[in-house]
Amino acid sequence: MRLNRKTVQPAANPVEFTFDGRKLVALPGETIAAALAANGIAAIRKFDAGAPGDENWRGLYCGMGACYDCVVTVDGKAGQRACLTKISGGETVRSSQPAGTPDDRLAPVAALPDEAPREEVGVDILVVGAGPAGMAAALAARRAGASVTVIDERAQAGGQYYKPLAPSLSAAEQPDRQFRRGAERFKALEDAGVTLVQGALVWGAIRPDEVLTLVGGREVVYRPKRLIFATGAYERPYPIPGWTLPGVMTTGAGQTLSRAYGVSPGSRVVVAGNGPLNLQLAADLAAHGVTVVAVVEAAPRPGLGKWRSLAKAGLAAPDLLAEGGKYRAVLAKSGTPIRWGHAAVSAKGDGRLESVAIAPLGADDEADMSRVTELQADALCLGYGFVASSEIARALGCRTVHDPRHLGTPAVEISESGETSLSGVYAVGDGAAVAGSRVAEAMGTIAGSHAAGTLGRTAGSAAADRARRDLETARSFQTALWDLFAAPPVTLAGVPDETILCRCEGLTFGRIRSEIDAGWDSLGTLKRRTRLGMGRCQARYCAATTAKLIEERTGRKREVEGFAPRLPVKPFPAAALARQKPEWGGHARAGSPNLGRAPQAEPFGTMEAEVAVIGGGVVGACLAYEFAKAGKDVLVIERDDVNLQASGANAGSLHVQLLSFDFGKKAEAGGGPAADTLPLGPYAVKLWQEIAEACGGDFEIRVTGGLMVAESEAGMAFLKAKAEVERRHGIDAHILGRSELRDLAPGLSEELIGAEYVAEEGKINPLTATYRTFEAAKAAGARSLRGTNVTAIERDGTAWTITTQRGTIRAGTVINAAGPWAREIGAMVGIDVPVYSAPLQMITTERAPQLIGQLVAHADRHLSLKQLSTGGILIGGAWPARYAEHQRLNTTMLDSIEGNLWVAQRVVPQIAGLHVLRSWAGMNVNIDGAPIIGEASGLSGFYNCVTSNGYTLAPAVARLTRELVTHGSASFNVEPYRLERFERS
Question: Model pTM?
Answer without folding.
Answer: 0.94
